[in-house]
Amino acid sequence: MSIRFTAKVRRGTVALTVAAGLVLGVAGCGGGGGGDDKPTPSASASKDGGSKPSAQEGQSETPLAELKGTGGLLLQITSAARDSGGFLTVNGVVKNDGDKSAVVPPQTSGDETEVIAHGPSLGGATLVDAKGKKRYYTLRDTEGRPLTTTGLGNLEAGQTLPVFMQFPAPPTSTAEVDLQVPTFSSGTIKISG
């Protein structure tokens, strides 16, 4: 178990190091939220392999937002929390609310060739800060992998899949943002932390 933990910490540290560089780069383009803070390993600690939030995450009784998708798919957002590294992690669950098997559409990956090359993901998700007049894109590592749940595919009727997406954090004065995921309706979510 300690070997697995070490591998998780190493992956999280690499992801945070890369993400910090991206935040600094994005900040110069008007998309960052500061970038002066140093990343901490806690920012991606629950992201082992990309799709499993901790037991506490994803278990909220009332979702912050519900985004309806195609084929009976429903994206329920359970948390949107800032961390000390300057990131915003959005957690939730994709659920097949229909009565037959459904496929998570490939459009959720977005249209960037580098992101698409790494398989189905939520890499096309964006946050819109209407007050600050900024749009935030999912973070990516140096190889173009989005810092989101990957490997999305078929969901049987009633099946759920925990998901996450990581973005540069908007300024602390921003309390709400609109989450947009291709093929899903948009929804307003409140930020904690």
UniProtKB/TrEMBL annotation:
Q: Which UniProt keywords apply?
A: Signal
Keyword Signal present in the record's keywords: the answer is yes
**Which stretches does the entry tag as region Disordered?**
32-62
> From which residue to which does the signal peptide run?
1-20
Compositionally biased spans, kind Polar residues = 53-62
Tell me which PROSITE patterns the record gives: PROKAR_LIPOPROTEIN (PS51257)
Source organism, top-level taxon? Bacteria
According to UniProt, the name of this protein is: Secreted protein
Q: Which species is this record about?
A: Streptomyces tibetensis
